[in-house]
Amino acid sequence: MYLRADSCYLKFPLGIMLVNVIGSFLLGLIFKSETNIAFALMGFSGALTTWSAFAMDLFEQAKRREQFFFLLNLFGNYALALLAAGLGIWIAQ
Fold it and tell me: What is the number of domains present in the chain?
């Protein structure tokens, strides 16, 4: 999934960001779990996140000198993942 800006076809990896945020939320939920299944789900959530693809997208955005999308991608992923993990922990309590 990519966002398009006007007719310029500037790309933003929204799908990768969403998967990272969802994976972080699930890890937050699982973090407070005391059952053995939590370990299996943590492996699933860890595999679900796509931090390596995130790094490659950042590299490509920097190479194309897309500063706005680079910064949005960089700070958006970290901020939303942190908030999602915190929300998961809060809900699990």
Answer: 1
The answer to whether residues 21 and 84 touch, using CB atoms and an 8 Å cutoff, is yes
Mean pLDDT per 10-residue segment, the chain (93 residues): 48 84 82 65 68 83 94 95 92 86
What gap in Å lies between CA 60 and CA 88, rounded to an integer?
31
Contact predicate 29/92, CB 8 Å: yes
pTM: 0.65
Q: What's the domain range around 86?
A: 35-92
Q: Are 30 and 93 in contact (CB under 8 A)?
A: no
Task: Enter the tokens of residue 43.
Answer: 């492996």
Residue 61 located in a structural domain: yes
Contact (CB, 8 A) for 49 and 74: no
b/e map 23-36, b = 16+ CB within 10 Å: bbbbbbbbeeeeee
